[in-house]
Amino acid sequence: ETGVTQSPTHLIKTRGQQVTLRCSSQSGHNTVSWYQQALGQGPQFIFQYYREEENGRGNFPPRFSGLQFPNYSSELNVNALELDDSALYLCASSFATPNEQFFGPGTRLTVL
Amino acid sequence: AQSVTQLDSHVSVSEGTPVLLRCNYSSSYSPSLFWYVQHPNKGLQLLLKYTSAATLVKGINGFEAEFKKSETSFHLTKPSAHMSDAAEYFCVVSRPYNNNDMRFGAGTRLTVKP
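The joint structure predicted for all components is written out below.
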């Protein structure tokens, strides 16, 4: 196990709702990255937070937003959910950007 | 821009035989390259990484990969497959020494037959 935890493990929402996913980084890590993994595909980079500031963003619309707290835990918020948002959401933590990322087990989001 | 292409979506081998998972990359600079493994209901685990040092990289659980710039390839190999190797494998490219835009391939599912 990596020490990166995510909650909840599973979530079911309906189209148009909003969702918040949470990630606790491994002890000593100050960087958190979020990824979306659709069924049968590789993870896609959503964004990264380094010391509470956004530090890079992938090709996702603004309704995907995030936050990093002083203890370096992080939230991913998705507004106006669409059916295509159904996926496994992974977070990964590291100590700064050059170093290895450690992944959590993910949150499975289903949008009906 | 950077991307990876995993040439096989599914590879099936018998236990004890060699494993070859193929990956080609595209990058406008000298990249960092990684292989990750994903077991069902578990997080991604790093197998090995290339960061412009030795071109033959040894990883965990007997896996290794060779960076070939002339072929833009980073294939993953293992001499002898074990049942526990059955999983999804991802090839990943990123900018050197910077993990804030890692690009994953679509994955290769490895099946190991007894």
